[in-house]
Task: structure prediction
Amino acid sequence: MTELYRLTIHEAAELLRQRKISSVELTQAHLDRIRAVDPQVKAFTLVTDELALKQAKEADRRLASGENLSPLTGIPVAIKDVISTKGVTTTCSSRMLENFVPPFNATVMEKLNRAGIVMVGKTNMDEFAMGSSTEHSAFFPTRNPWDLERAPGGSSGGSAAAVAAGMAMGAYGSDTGGSIRQPGALCNVAGLKPTYGRVSRFGLVAFASSLDQIGPFARNAHDAALLLQAVAGHDPNDSTSSTQPVADYMKELTGSIKGMRIGVPEEYWVEGTQPGVVQAIRANIELLRELGAEIGPISLPHTKYGIAAYYIIAPSEASANLARYDGVKYGYSYRDTSDMWEAMEKTRANGFGPEVKRRIMLGTYALSAGYYDAYYKRAEQVRTLITRDFEQAFAQFDVLVSPTAPTVAFKIGEISDPYQMYLNDVFTLPANLAGICGISIPGGFSEGLPVGMQLLGNAFAEENILRVADAFQRVTDYHTRWPNL
Result:
């Protein structure tokens, strides 16, 4: 039999249901795998072995009782360290929250606990989810399982690397400008950003509240659908969560995309995109055509302003959200002074890393008197134009296809210029500005490193992107390849 950590979620769920394996065995196999490879990869900020085995025993009890259970019961999953876990540290990979233990669970954790998942640990990330490489963690950088010299992408790099290396069967991350899709692409796993409001943000530590969205990582689109199903839906604790009904995603995975209309945005082939990436995605588009999809070009003319608008809006919201870390209520607090202002200044100076400070300063500047209209207001107007571009595109097409990132994984320490790093999100962040859904799936290899293919769907049309992703994966094997660790 194949090693247990190499199973997909739906394969493992079937074996658990038939009682051919137990959740304790499955969980132990993943904990052993973490012990074997995480010292090299460094995907986890915390491994919750005791809790995992306790949850696995409970899952086995429920499976034995013959209850009608979720397909995720007994499945080992990793959680990005930005999602609140009751009684388990939630650090956001920041010194500011290094010892913070939340007194409550995020809504997604409540739903996952009801589904009976096994949490194997919390995953490393760029501090407060600000970054595209997981080098901005206050603790250590995470390494890409495909090449330990390279970055896994970010900010959810730990979650992507954990799934890619077989340390968890699935994982959850957050996506504010590409933080699920870009690491998914660089690590050769599926990474899905749901529509804004599809999944509750209650208990997600906020970076940019109008852009953040929780979503899953998995080895394939089929498993991503299961992981999304478990957490999607309205939550009265989150005023931005949608009351739109949730589709039965598994039912939509028919394997056929005959007659589906797929648009290719002209603006998503920017200068600087590596030739190997272009080649792989162009070949995939031809394959989608062979599978019966109708392919055509589309223009999203305001795409070129996306990065500029995003890097005004996101830091502005971050500047407001991170004002709560003042050393008074919780988190790190500088105490070596009797002066209140010095205490606050030193708390923030010592508690935040350089990238977080950079973004707070950018945002504070953009919101300051005299600059608000010139920057923030203008950026919001551009956001409206980008949203309209997508509305017009989805009037003609069911799904849009593009590269996920302009390059394959880059070396750790290779990109020192912040602006160069921001350009990694050029194809992903427009979807966040417009609030639509997107998935990155394994789309081939260039120079031995994974290339991600991005599929974008209209608001609340996750079933469309999952259907195309699943059909593509039925005739390709990129998602079945493993890094050599």
Q: What stands out?
A: The chain has one domain: 4-262+397-480. Residues 174 and 303 are 22 Å apart (CA to CA).
